[in-house]
Design a protein that fits this description.
This protein is mainly α. The chain contains four helices and no strands. It has a single domain, classed as Ferritin, core subunit, four-helix bundle (Ferritin, Up-down Bundle), CATH 1.20.1260. The longest helix is centred in the last third of the chain and has 30 residues.
Length: 153
Amino acid sequence: MKTLNTAALNKFSGLMFFLKRSKHDFEMVADEMENYTLKSALNGLSEESSFYASELKNYLKHLGINTTTFIETDLPVEHFNGDACDTECFEKGLELKSLVNYNERYLTKAYSELLEEQMPCKSLQEIISYQLKALKISFQKIQTLNTARFVMY
C-alpha cells in the first residue's frame, strides 16, 4: 500500500488546523446571532467542520498514519491570516459575509491542494472531494441566509 508523502501530510495538517479554527470561529459568531435560521446554519457548519476533521483523522489512522505527530501540532495563526479583514469597518451584515468568504477561500484551497496529491487509496480522495462539495454548499446556504435577513426587514 502506498503512503502519503511529507507534502501531503503537511497539507493534511494545514487542513485540520483550519477546520478546527473555522469550527471555533463559526461557533462564536452563531452565539452572537439573533436570526435563528442563520444561527442554526452557522452551528451546523461548525459541527460539519469538526466532523470532517475527525473523519479524516480516523481514516488516516486506519491507514496506519500516526496523526498525532502532525495534526495535533498547532500551526501559527499568521500562516493563515494573509488577508483577514477587520470586521469593524464593514456595513451591517458584511462582517459575516467577510468571515464566510475568508474561511471558504482557505478551506477550498486546502482541500483543492490535497486533491492534487497522490492518495494511497481512492476512497480517501473521494472523502476529500465529498467534504469539499458539502462545505461549498454550506457556505452558499449561509451567504444566502445572511443576505435574506436584511432583505426581509
